[in-house]
Amino acid sequence: MRAAPVAPSVGRVSASVLWFRRDLRLADNPALLAAVAAGTAGVVPLFVVDPVLWDPAGPVRRAYLLRSLRSLDESLGGALHVRTGDPARAVAELAAELTAGSVHCAADFGPYGSRRDAAVAAALSAAGRDLVRTGSPYAVAPGRVRKGDGTPYRVYTPFYRAWVDHGWRGPAGPPPGDPPWRRHTGSCALPGHPDLGRLVLPEAGERAAVQRWQAFRDGGLDGYATHRDRADLAGTSSLSAALRWGEVHPRTLLADLAPAHEMFRKELAWREFYADVLHHVPGSARTSLRSDLAGMDLDSGTDADDRFEAWTQGRTGYPFVDAGMRQLLAEGWVHNRVRMVVASFLVKDLHLPWTRGARWFMRWLRDGDLASNQHGWQWVAGTGTDAAPYHRVFNPVLQGRRFDPDGTYVRRYVPELVGVAGAVVHEPWRLPGGPPAGYPWPVVDHQEERQVALDRYASATQGPGAAPNG
Predict the structure, then answer these.
(1) Contact by Cβ (8 Å): 409, 372
(2) Which pairs count as long-range contacts for 374-378, CB under 8 Å and 24+ apart, including other chains?
């Protein structure tokens, strides 16, 4: 026989719980304000090490998250409470120990996050407690922006216009006075820091994110539209990991943008667009949005595996591709233009499934975000949003010459080519005697494989039973 729910005692002085997830900051945090307002006996800040998310995460993402959590704990005066296990149990148990009437968090719109939060809400409700969701990791929560007929967008440009028309709130202010953080017994230790070898991560945490934004805002934002695609220049904000973990909120960035900064605003909107798509079609994290390309002919077998290995290690013989893949292994991050080029090479030169590349990226990226990563890969593969023309095949040589004109980026990450001066570094096989010692010849001929890719895409889209692009 099930026991009746037990409500917290009326009038009892109790703490509230602030459950941190993808909002590892104190500034511009609406959930924090709600928790402070509800916690008559203070606020217990909580992070749950969830095995469902922790176990499959690569060492780079774990390491960055741990650094960000330690920074958060410092800003909380050491009050961060850590539990490990199923959040539905861990959160409910802590709330019961505190006789807390409410647990506060930002809403999560991801496929797993939505299910997890529903389970936590049910567990709390059974004891007469509430899970209060306030705010989200986005300027405009997924599901808010829709077409006139109520259906979601699948093409970015009209989404962007509607997103701008919808608008967003300004940054949330600080709570009145210092938040009354409350320590509670029974906290677990954070997991140990993984061994990253030679991989170097930048400083993590809210303070570092704000400093990075201020430096870019004051010194790089005006040139962003011109320099953002140049892999050899520091032309981007490098805030993708900070946004992924919520060390800074997009509202904070948007509030600093002038009308002339529309290109940067558009890049923030891409992140929101992909989150919206994943919210409406959760299965698109694993399968292509375009059903007509699901059966396209792809390579497999030992030779395909060998080429995938060459791609992962930056040994394809195409320097711009190899520099990007080695940057991933060295820093847990890749310049966005280069991400598109290396993705195109895997899918359209090596004829391997986009899901295989997406998994590799999620393993190594410190900013690994399910919506942005999976749908970025699908955009390149032509299987996802925007009706992206599948016949767009990035030429790794031309892309290198255009966005790394002197070869500075390539030489930074491919030491075998340090002695090759100028743009010829993008075609080392043309040097007298071929590539320098230790650097491979190209694993494929780009022009030949480009045509193979076009033929396969055409066959998939024009064959019997092909579905229209949706």
Answers:
(1) no
(2) 374/274, 374/278, 374/284, 374/285, 374/286, 375/274, 375/277, 375/278, 375/284, 376/274, 376/339, 376/340, 376/343, 377/343, 377/347, 378/284, 378/288, 378/289, 378/354
Residues 253 and 317 in one domain: no
Domain that residue 83 falls in? 16-136
| 255 and 315 inside one domain | no
- Chain-centroid distance of CA 431 in Å reads 39
Whole-number Å distance between alpha carbons of 162 and 465: 34
Tokens at 126, concatenated: 């059974």
Q: Hey, what are 331's tokens?
A: 């820093």
- Is 94:9 a contact under the CB 8 Å cutoff? no
**Lookup: tokens for 316:** 């394809």
Rounded to the nearest 5 degrees, what angle is found at the Cα of 106, between the Cα atoms of 152 and 191? 120
Rg (CA), the chain: 24
pTM: 0.93
Positive or negative, the CA dihedral 130, 135, 140, 141 is negative
| CA dist 84 → 89, 190, 339 (Å) | 10, 9, 34
Same domain assignment for residues 76 and 152: no
**pLDDT tens digits in sequence order for the chain, 470 residues long:** 333 333 343 345 589 999 999 999 999 999 999 999 998 899 999 999 999 999 999 999 999 999 999 999 999 999 999 999 999 999 999 999 999 999 999 999 999 999 999 999 999 999 999 999 999 999 999 999 999 999 999 999 999 999 999 999 999 999 888 889 999 999 999 999 999 999 999 999 999 999 999 999 999 999 999 999 999 999 999 999 999 999 999 999 999 999 999 999 999 999 999 999 999 999 999 999 988 887 889 999 999 999 999 999 999 999 999 999 999 999 999 999 999 999 999 999 999 999 999 999 999 999 999 999 999 999 999 999 986 567 789 999 999 999 999 999 999 999 999 999 999 999 999 999 999 999 999 999 999 999 999 999 999 888 643 333 32
398 plus 340 within the same structural domain? yes
- Rounded CA-CA distance 315/326 in Å is 9
Q: List Cα–Cα distances, 446 to 106, 208, 326, 346, 394, in angstroms.
A: 46, 41, 20, 11, 10
Sequence-distant (≥ 6) Cβ neighbours of residue 151 within 8 angstroms: none
CA angle, 415 then 421 then 423, to 5°: 105
CATH number at residue 269: 1.25.40.80
